[in-house]
Write a structure and sequence with these properties.
Helices cover 45% and strands 12% of the residues. With 193 residues, it is of the alpha/beta class. Strands 3-2-1-4-5-6 form a six-stranded parallel beta sheet, with helices on both faces.
């Protein structure tokens, strides 16, 4: 099986760390409450910050978040089992787009944990095109907009949903998971060996 996989919020726990620093920035730096929708995964939609404030947040915190983040709990065990069973992993991530050094930091974290994916796509804007071209059997992502677009285009998806994020209705192409145990169970139920 060929598994497409996002990094942030799926392999790396950076999304939780981002949300922490977003709150610190909003409360301590901006001294306001600009939160408009806590169900949105990206800060651009979560807060009504100006472009200048978004840029300031990126410059002040993106590398800090990257360096403080770790692998998601349970990922290494499930990844190792799936690799032993012969499954392929294709990383499809936007990481490296805003801050180039975040790609290098992800590579460092993966290497330190002996994780070697089969293929990497960095700074991706359109995950659908890559999923189709790579013929992935399933894509794992934490952004509901990406998941919805993929599922609407008949790409099987696992929506790695954090508790605060937008809930989507499951169907033949969209299933919700909340941890790597859920991922493993679902893939086994799909019949992978």
């Amino acid at each position: 099986m060929k598994i497409g996989i996002d990094l942030d919020g799926v392999v790396i726990d950076s999304e939780t760390t981002f949300r922490t620093y977003e709150e610190i920035f909003d409360i301590d730096t901006l001294k306001e409450n600009n939160l408009v929708n806590k169900e949105e995964p990206k800060f651009q939609e979560r807060y009504n910050w100006t472009n200048e404030q978004e840029k300031e947040f990126i410059e002040k915190y993106f590398l800090t978040v990257s360096k403080e983040s770790n692998l998601m709990s349970g990922f290494i065990g499930v990844y190792n089992l799936l690799k032993e069973q012969g499954h392929e992993f294709v990383v499809i991530t936007a990481r490296g787009g805003f801050v180039k050094e975040m790609k290098d930091d992800a590579i460092r974290l993966l290497e330190e944990n002996n994780i070697k994916f089969d293929k990497y796509y960095w700074k991706v804007e359109d995950k659908l095109e890559i999923c189709k071209n790579e013929k992935v059997d399933i894509m794992i992502d934490d952004d509901w907009k990406i998941i919805k677009k993929l599922a609407d285009n008949k790409v099987k998806t696992l929506y790695f949903r954090d508790t605060n994020l937008t809930k989507l209705e499951e169907n033949d192409y969209l299933k919700e998971v909340n941890n790597w145990g859920d991922v493993y169970r679902y893939l086994k139920e799909m019949g992978i060996k």
